[in-house]
Specification:
Helices cover about 35% and strands about 15% of the residues. With about 300 residues, the chain is an alpha/beta fold. GO terms for molecular function: cysteine synthase activity.
Length: about 300
């Protein structure tokens, strides 16, 4: 008999059609359930890719210390990948990350270093760079590492093309590191340049885990604006309301960025007809329960 290793079951996540949330205009609305990955998010793909490709190049070896700044899901995925492959993992994040996220990282054996909520991800990235310059570990740098979007070019994009039998017309994704949208866009546009790629960023003042509006100095180096056809601003309340809709109307328990993706997909659906619209459900909602976002009456 042949058995999978854990890393062998990353990817090949389900693509499901929404049944009660109506996209109208004879559109088909499909959700890619990335919470079905072993560590619970779309970030399992780049986490394993960045470590495996660095190993293949000889940049790192088992026993090394790896350092990464993360707001949550990448940290959990990297903690899992480091446990699989035998690395010490140090993760730097803002201290307002949900307790479930912090506990999941620690459960995999990662060491956590926090910066203030005010310093945010920019501060976490600066601290990670300082630690690397002091020789305290080796970088992965999801924001500049081409092995991040490469994972989606090799896996997520081909899966969507296969699962929709090439009928996909629109791809909707939140933009954080931008690895997902960069890799998927590259693959899908090679198959059909008419497929529309729609990115999501938060409105000014919104704080949506997994979606970022980066200051120019911190814009991820892997980002190429030419790969995104349009960008939508997503509001805080809008993302949270659609997150709850996914759970209460479709039985899909997901995080706030996934609610933002649904909101963006529905906005696109208002403008098109006979379209096959795919949006990314980035993670599972159980890692947000302590935030009160799913509380009765909310």
């Amino acid at each position: 008999m042949q058995f999978h290793t854990l890393e062998g079951v990353v990817g090949n996540t389900p693509l499901v059609r929404l049944q009660r949330i109506n996209a109208g205009h004879n559109n088909t609305l499909l959700a890619k359930l990335e919470g079905n990955n072993p560590a619970g998010s779309v970030k399992d793909r780049p986490a394993l890719s960045m470590i495996s490709e660095a190993e293949a190049r000889g940049d790192i070896a088992a026993g090394d210390t790896l350092i990464e700044a993360t707001s949550g899901n990448t940290g959990i995925a990297l903690a899992m990948a480091a446990a699989i492959k035998g690395y010490r993992m140090v993760l730097i994040m803002p201290d307002n990350a949900s307790s479930e996220r912090k506990q999941a990282m620690a459960a995999y054996g990662a060491e956590l270093v926090t910066v203030s909520k005010e310093a945010g991800m920019e501060g976490a990235r600066d601290l990670a760079q300082n630690m690397i310059e002091r020789g305290e570990g080796k970088p992965l740098d999801q924001f500049a590492n081409p092995d991040n979007p490469l994972s989606h070019y090799r896996t997520t994009g081909p899966e969507l093309w296969r699962q929709t039998e090439g009928t996909i017309t629109h791809f909707i994704s939140s933009m954080g590191t931008t690895g997902t949208i960069m890799g998927v866009s590259r693959f899908l546009k090679e198959r059909n340049p008419d497929i529309r790629i729609v990115g999501l960023q938060p409105e000014d003042g919104a704080s949506i885990a997994g979606i970022r509006r980066w200051p120019e100095a911190y814009l991820p180096r892997i980002f190429d604006a030419s790969r995104v056809d349009s960008v939508l601003d997503i509001g805080q309340q809008e993302a949270e309301e659609h997150m709850r809709r996914l759970a209460r109307e479709e039985g899909i328990l997901a995080g706030v960025s996934s609610g933002g993706s649904l909101a963006g997909a529905l906005r696109v659906a208002e403008q098109v007809e006979n379209a096959v619209i795919v949006f990314i459900v980035c993670d599972r909602g159980d890692r947000y329960l302590s935030t009160g976002l799913f509380a009765p009456g909310v």
